[in-house]
Design a protein that fits this description.
Length: 221
């Protein structure tokens, strides 16, 4: 009994190491077009599918990435438009998200992470500086020109900065999860609801109470 538990544990660890166990399981059928209309009373890891015989070509097509996002709608000067099961129901269970990234002149996507996905970004227009920080706090950074791609490893904090002083930047990114998630470091720490206690932030960032208040106010927290 003990030995078989031990074996199971070893097998699981091996499976994780070999990447056999991944967060998005392989689809069990050709496709699973998301049923976004019928309310469902149970929660699934993903969305239920419509009857496959009712799937049509337009379930697999979207124009959502054709339109630039409004980069004035937030204080950092970026906008990310994502495919999801609402605007592209055919993506359900495929383990994919596509993103259109618009960054204003001198705009940023501040340090953030995607807990459930690795990301590869191709720059279509502009001139940006990108980087990620690994878990030993080493920074990997590159300047990208149109046509260049860069990979952000899963879960690691990364940023994009439009260093072109005259034109906006446009990039397209692919993420290997249907629901990659995004967490901005500054907003998570200083604009959470409810608030992280001041004492924790003062200590974590080695700053005073007035600094905590100022940063909160600046970030709308
Ligand atoms: C992105 O742009 C859309 C309109 O293009 C806007 O509704 C949305 O609030 C913007 N998102 C952010 C995060 O600024
Ligand atoms: C973009 O967002 C800003 C701020 O919310 C707003 O004033 C402006 O009208 C928006 N532009 C477009 C094209 O929607």
């Amino acid at each position: 009994m003990v030995r078989s538990k031990h074996l199971l544990l070893q097998t699981l660890i091996l499976a994780v190491l070999l990447g056999i166990i991944t967060s998005d399981p392989e689809p069990l059928q050709d496709f699973c077009v998301a049923d976004t209309v019928n309310p469902h009373s149970m929660f699934l890891n993903g969305a239920p599918c419509i009857n496959p015989s009712q799937a049509i070509s337009c379930h697999f097509m979207t124009s959502i990435l054709a339109k630039p996002g409004n980069t004035s709608a937030n204080r950092f000067g970026f906008n990310v438009t994502l495919t999801n099961i609402q605007n592209l129901p055919g993506i359900n269970t495929q383990g994919l998200t596509m993103a259109r990234v618009d960054i204003a002149v001198n705009g940023y996507i501040p340090p953030h992470s995607h807990p459930r996905a690795s990301e590869v970004t191709i720059l279509l227009k502009g001139n940006i500086l990108v980087g990620f920080i690994d878990t030993s706090n080493k920074l990997f950074t590159q300047q990208l020109r149109p046509g260049d791609s860069f990979v952000f490893p899963k879960g690691l904090t990364h940023f994009l900065y439009n260093i072109d002083m005259s034109s906006p930047a446009v990039a397209v990114a692919g993420l290997n999860s249907q629901n990659p998630g995004a967490q901005l470091v500054s907003l998570a720490t200083f604009a959470s609801k409810p608030r992280i206690p001041d004492e924790v932030l003062k200590n974590a960032f080695q700053i005073g109470g007035q600094d905590v208040e100022r940063i909160r106010r600046n970030l709308g927290g």
